[in-house]
Hints:
Elements: H1 3-50, H2 52-95, H3 99-110, E1 116-119, H4 121-126, H5 129-136, E2 144-149, E3 155-160, E4 163-168, H6 169-189
Parallel strand pairs: 1-2
Antiparallel strand pairs: 1-3, 3-4
Amino acid sequence: MGVEDIKRKIITDAEKEKEKILEEAREKAAHIMDEKRKSAQKRKEEILSRAEKDGEMEKSRILTIEKLESRKNLLAAKQTVIQRVFDAALEHLSASDEYEGILAERITHVAHGGEEIILSPRDRKHLGKAFFDRVNSTLSQPLTPSTETRNIAGGFILKRGDIEINESFDMQMRELRDDMEREVAHILFSGDSR
């Protein structure tokens, strides 16, 4: 599964989750707006009792602040939704039936041979000799599985001396997010005028 397949998978997952996630964001935003409207109305009545002119100016200021706060909260909710989509894609990739094939393909694409390979604790435990025999058969020198592990969702880190090449799926997903965040947000929130 190449980068393009991963991108398509992310987009497909984003579309599937769109309505569910968007509804949650709308409900949260509506609740926030309702609370803020109640608060603004109460404040308005207190101010109007003191002086009509001062009350109108205060109302305008409060509504502006409330709108800004609401927008800030909605933006935070949307960022949370986007993060959930990318987290779900990473989780799906790491749990995929094609995981070992994807991992082997990435290793043979990046490794030159002779490097030490650092894996997640899960991969260190589950990837067997047959996996490394298959990967090493494509390299000029075999990889050395490290006794060290890293807290990564999947993928690997190649190490030669003091130089590390981070090919963890966590890093790959961060790079994809930088490239795709706007597109995913458009898919999730298209038609959302807020």
